[in-house]
């Protein structure tokens, strides 16, 4: 009996209390907030200054980032009120605030997960627009998920009647089975993450491009499916701890995996846009290393090239890179177009090239002024 009394008498600052999960939660949430914000900030910069500015998809990504950050902040508050500790180590006055944070995370998880996956799938509809059946499937899948999450959120909001009974068991009323609802969410999450992971594979593999380029496209588009690892572990943990009475410890572990899943998804929605930023940085780095003025030999070689030779070389470059570039440009969302105009008026010393800023599709146009002038002279 004295040992039990001593256990109950321990306060939250007792050095004997196991706080490892609580500390891991603080570290996990800080990492999630920082990484999501960095990647989202880079996405905003890329869309605003390198690509064509904000679009509808970017506002959806903004909502996903905002909800993801709020979700992590709620998890920090959950840890502050005893999340990650054994139930017997949590002061009585913290139990109701802890349960309130649990309620908030239950309600927030569905909309946050849906908007994040919605952004990833939206990118895929644009990238694989030539695959009509695949696009129809993606839209149908987005609709099915929405048809699940809307009633699921309503059910979780009204989980208890009255709602306050969720965090105060002394209030008269009734509650639905919380574990069953959490389990349903976990199953839907695993299924949808697997689809996001696997969907780009058959579509990309069917394209005519090198294996290396295919892997790069799959890595960018399927990266959001990496959250499937977190969601599978989360589902397994829910099954194992479903009947646990140590709710403050069990739910904190489950919630940390939910945070990881959301954060990975938000980061991956930024990757296609960041591909344009990386390409711009590499291009500027290569330009700085290149010699500013070519040698006389290289200039003479360029001037002696016929228009046909130049056109053939430019076309071969475009053909070699077009498949991957089109996919990446579609993923980035209507990037600016760089146009190069080669004017050949019959005098080699007047050959000039003009570029209009931006990163994206490169279009090359050859204009033969001398031929046009000769045609006009002969009345053609």
UniProtKB/TrEMBL annotation:
<feature type="transmembrane region" description="Helical">
    <location>
        <begin position="260"/>
        <end position="278"/>
    </location>
</feature>
<feature type="transmembrane region" description="Helical">
    <location>
        <begin position="63"/>
        <end position="82"/>
    </location>
</feature>
<comment type="similarity">
    <text>Belongs to the SAT4 family.</text>
</comment>
<feature type="transmembrane region" description="Helical">
    <location>
        <begin position="24"/>
        <end position="42"/>
    </location>
</feature>
<feature type="region of interest" description="Disordered">
    <location>
        <begin position="289"/>
        <end position="319"/>
    </location>
</feature>
<dbReference type="InterPro" id="IPR052337">
    <property type="entry name" value="SAT4-like"/>
</dbReference>
<dbReference type="InterPro" id="IPR049326">
    <property type="entry name" value="Rhodopsin_dom_fungi"/>
</dbReference>
<feature type="transmembrane region" description="Helical">
    <location>
        <begin position="102"/>
        <end position="124"/>
    </location>
</feature>
<keyword id="KW-0812">Transmembrane</keyword>
<keyword id="KW-1133">Transmembrane helix</keyword>
<feature type="transmembrane region" description="Helical">
    <location>
        <begin position="179"/>
        <end position="205"/>
    </location>
</feature>
<feature type="transmembrane region" description="Helical">
    <location>
        <begin position="217"/>
        <end position="240"/>
    </location>
</feature>
<keyword id="KW-0472">Membrane</keyword>
<protein>
    <recommendedName>
        <fullName>Rhodopsin domain-containing protein</fullName>
    </recommendedName>
</protein>
<feature type="domain" description="Rhodopsin">
    <location>
        <begin position="42"/>
        <end position="280"/>
    </location>
</feature>
<feature type="compositionally biased region" description="Polar residues">
    <location>
        <begin position="302"/>
        <end position="315"/>
    </location>
</feature>
<dbReference type="Pfam" id="PF20684">
    <property type="entry name" value="Fung_rhodopsin"/>
</dbReference>
<feature type="transmembrane region" description="Helical">
    <location>
        <begin position="136"/>
        <end position="159"/>
    </location>
</feature>
<dbReference type="GO" id="GO:0016020">
    <property type="term" value="C:membrane"/>
</dbReference>
């Amino acid at each position: 009996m004295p040992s039990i009394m001593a256990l109950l008498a321990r306060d939250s600052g007792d050095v004997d209390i196991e706080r490892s999960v609580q500390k891991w939660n603080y570290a996990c949430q800080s990492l999630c907030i920082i990484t999501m914000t960095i990647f989202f900030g880079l996405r905003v910069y890329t869309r605003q200054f390198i690509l064509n500015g904000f679009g509808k998809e970017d506002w959806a990504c903004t909502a996903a980032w905002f909800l993801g950050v709020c979700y992590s902040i709620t998890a920090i508050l959950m840890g502050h009120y005893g999340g990650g500790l054994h139930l017997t180590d949590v002061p009585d006055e913290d139990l109701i605030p802890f349960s309130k944070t649990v309620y908030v995370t239950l309600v927030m998880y569905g909309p946050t997960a849906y908007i994040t996956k919605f952004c990833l799938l939206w990118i895929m509809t644009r990238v694989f627009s030539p695959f009509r059946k695949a696009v129809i499937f993606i839209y149908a899948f987005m609709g099915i998920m929405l048809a699940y999450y809307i009633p699921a959120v309503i059910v979780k909001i009204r989980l208890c009647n009255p709602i306050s009974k969720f965090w105060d068991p002394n209030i008269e009323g009734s509650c639905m089975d919380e574990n069953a609802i959490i389990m349903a969410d976990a199953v839907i999450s695993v299924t949808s993450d697997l689809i996001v992971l696997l969907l780009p594979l058959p579509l990309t593999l069917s394209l005519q491009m090198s294996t290396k380029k295919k892997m790069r496209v799959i890595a960018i588009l399927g990266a959001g499916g990496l959250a499937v690892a977190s969601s599978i572990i989360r589902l397994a943990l829910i099954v194992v701890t479903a009947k646990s009475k140590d709710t403050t410890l069990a739910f904190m572990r489950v919630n940390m995996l939910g945070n990881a899943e959301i954060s990975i998804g938000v980061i991956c929605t930024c990757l296609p846009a960041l591909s344009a930023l990386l390409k711009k940085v590499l291009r500027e780095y290569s330009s700085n290393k290149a010699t500013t003025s070519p040698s006389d030999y290289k200039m003479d070689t360029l001037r002696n090239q016929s228009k046909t030779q130049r056109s053939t070389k430019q076309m071969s470059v475009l053909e070699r890179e077009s498949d991957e570039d089109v996919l990446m440009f579609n993923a980035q969302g209507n990037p600016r177009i760089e146009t190069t105009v080669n004017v050949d008026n019959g005098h080699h010393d007047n050959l000039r090239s003009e570029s209009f800023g931006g990163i994206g599709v490169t279009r090359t146009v050859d204009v033969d002024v001398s031929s046009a002038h000769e045609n006009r002279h002969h009345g053609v």
